[in-house]
Amino acid sequence: MIYAFKGFIPVVHESAFVHPQAAVTGNVIIGRDVYIGPGAAIRGDWGGIVIEDGCNVQENCTIHMFPGVTVRLEASAHIGHGAIIHGAHIGRNCMVGMNSVIMDNAVIGAESIIGALTFVKAKAAIPPRSLVVGNPGKVIKTVSDEMIAWKTKGTQLYQTLPGDCHATLKPVEPLREIPADRPRQEALYATWEAIKREE
C-alpha cells in the first residue's frame, strides 16, 4: 500500500518492487531495482526517507524517524528481516542483520556489516568496513574482502528479485496436491553453499 501524507506522495522507480502488503507513506523516495518485502513499514510522515538504487528492505522491517530527520539508505544497502532503522544513515553496500536496531543519528560507514540482533546506539559513528555485533553494538573487526564479496553476491540476488516479482508474482489459489511436473528450485538458483564455494 502506498499512501500520500500531507501532500507528499512516495516516489517509486518503475523497476523497484514494493510488495502489496508493505506500507510506504509520505516523503519516501525509492530508487532503481529496490525490493521492499511484505510487512515492511516505511513511514515518511515526520521526515524523509531515501532508499537508493539496489537496496533491499526485507520482511517486517521498520524505517522511521523523529521530526525533521531524513533517513538515507545508500546504494546496495541490505536490510535483513525484522530490522529497525530509526533516523539513521546506512552507508553504501552495508548489511544490517536480522532483527537489528539502528538508532537515531547513527551513521554506518560503507561496506559495514551489522550482525543479527545488534543494537547500535543513537549518534554512533561506525567506520567503513566494520563488523559490529552485540548490545550495545561494538566493532569487533574489519570486514574482509571475502566477507564483503559474500555480502555483495547476496545483495545482487535481491537486486534481481524486483524484476522476477514484476514478471511472475501473482495471487493464486493453492494447489491441493503436488504436481508431477513441479520444477526444482535448484535449477533456478545456485545454492548458498555453491555461491560460497565460488569465492
Automatic annotation (TrEMBL):
User: What is the protein's given name?
Assistant: Carbonic anhydrase
Q: Which residues cross the membrane?
A: none
A Pfam family annotated for this chain is: Hexapep
Organism classification, top ranks? Bacteria, Pseudomonadati, Bacteroidota, Saprospiria, Saprospirales
PANTHER family given in the database record? DYNACTIN SUBUNIT P25, GAMMA CARBONIC ANHYDRASE-LIKE 1, MITOCHONDRIAL-RELATED
The lineage's top-level taxon is Bacteria
